[in-house]
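Exercise: predict the fold of this chain.
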Amino acid sequence: MDNSSIYKTLKRRSEGLYKEKGSKFIGIAQKCYSEEEAKELLKKWKQEHNQAGHLCYAYRFGVDKKVYRSNDDGEPSNSAGPPILGQIQAYDLSNVLIGVVRYYGGTKLGVGGLIGAYRTSAKEAIEAGKIIELEVYNWVRIRFEYVDMPNVMNTLKKHRLKMIDNIFETSCELTTNLTVQLSESIIAELEAFTTVKVESKGIY
């Protein structure tokens, strides 16, 4: 299997807890695939912890891990978001969002104390979960006429591809997922048929 199409992420939501001088830090880690999904999860977490003073977070997306962001949410600059992102990097995770909610305990921790607290909370959340390896696929939409139905079906069977979200009406459409390393050759094989058009929906 091509290592360039494999990444580590978390199987399910997990939480960690860290306490320091009366302040309580709750780390929440969850698989997440986009900035829009992250916004929805953060909104949900804020509702769950509506009495918390801060919800700092970091995320990283993609098999190449090039999309990432961290946010201090009002804490001193670089004292919260970057330490959380540092744990995502330390565990080599991607397609993941980690937030840490802070309930203030009345005693200031200082920048060094905050860095340690947010880092540890993120670490606890990761270690409370299960790290898994996933493969990304090139998801494609195949459009064709009935004359090419046998050809398309035989190609799917040959490469052991699943039919997803298929429509067979006046013309035909279906979605399938191709392994990244074989996608180019399979698409070429399909498009060699007279009526077949293949549209890439994205790699994820």
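Check your answer against the key: The radius of gyration is 22 Å.
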